[in-house]
Fold:
Amino acid sequence: MLATLIIVFREVFEAGLIVGIVLAVTGSVPHRNSWIGGGVLTGLMAACVVAAFAGALSQLFEGMGQELFNAAILAVAVVMLTWHNVWMASHGREMAGQMRAAGQAVADGSKSLLALAVVVGVAVLREGSEVALFLYGILASDGGGSAASLALGGLAGLVLGAGVCLLTYSGLMRIPQKALFATTTTLITLLAAGMATQAIAFLERANWLISLDRVAWDSGWLISDRSIAGRTLHTLIGYTDQPTQMQLLVYVTVLLGTFLLMRLTATHPTGRGGSAVRERAI
Amino acid sequence: MSAVTMTMRLFLPAAIGAIALLQPAWAEPIAEILVTYSNGQFQPGVLNAPVDKPVVIHVKNLDAKALEFESTSLRVEKVVAAKSEGIVNVRALKAGRYEFYDDFNDKAHGALIVE
Structure:
């Protein structure tokens, strides 16, 4: 049971962090719970489908189907997160200032919510499919322990993951309203850059990307990828103890790209919100 | 929406550039290794590979459980579904010992010796 708990928790942890951040980001947007809930549910269902067809998926692209699939959905999440940031930069202030008709604001808000719901769905899908595969394997094998202990371990892992989500959310909610926008923008930007480097890692594993694949440094002695700190930082800012040069390049590109896009599209670039974002983004 | 058009305009060339960089790398000679997994153990437990050559590890899972072939030093992580085979690409390696394990089962581990 304990082994099940640990493995389920490890997978759920990452999704929990991301859902917590998204909940904080969308704090005051109407209908956000149904959007995010929808994202989680869709992600769960998709995870089961992916797990059921994991064998077939692996066989695609000369055995690299899994890697390319992961790279593709991560890329979608990166685009969604970036789009959300850019959209917030150009519309967030208007919405906050109630300069638009309420109906229009809600409609626009939904567009951004859809992007974040997709991100949540992708996070749940990625972690969930591994959990489903793992649990299914235990159920299918003969000597794998009783179904009850499996369910108990899985459930406990899930509850702990939800706890991570709640802690992240309530932690972020302690930040004063004024600083919250800048904080979440920074978090989302780092999240996007981190996901982009993970996508690069998958492309490298698939041998689809071989340029600049030399490892730039090894900081495993300081923070190992397998430690709790390493896993947390991996999710939040894309930390990896042995990044390749290409990963670093893409990381910096996404950070700079988001920063530039936000500058270009901001409605009031001299406003307080804008300058706060600028400081954090650098 | 202007933000979207702007996003597209800036992202598109970047995306095209990125795709141009993508190319399967089959030019170099590679070493292929087979490792099977049954009853929760890797067989053989110690693999050998030549120095400075890309390695392809075929992980054949004979068990009814999924496994996750993982190694921090090799920088690989691959879920192999029950009763199926996974292919793991590894870059050209320096001489040394590289540990790997099943992330779903802490009793299963092995090592790749590069010399």
In short: The CA atoms of residues 57 and 88 of chain B lie 5 Å apart. Residues 31-114 of chain B form a domain with the Immunoglobulin-like fold (CATH 2.60.40.420). Chain B touches chain A at residues 2-4, 6-7, 10-11, 14, 21-26, 54, 63-68, 72, 75-89, 91, 103-104, 106 (CB under 8 Å). Chain B has one domain: 31-114.
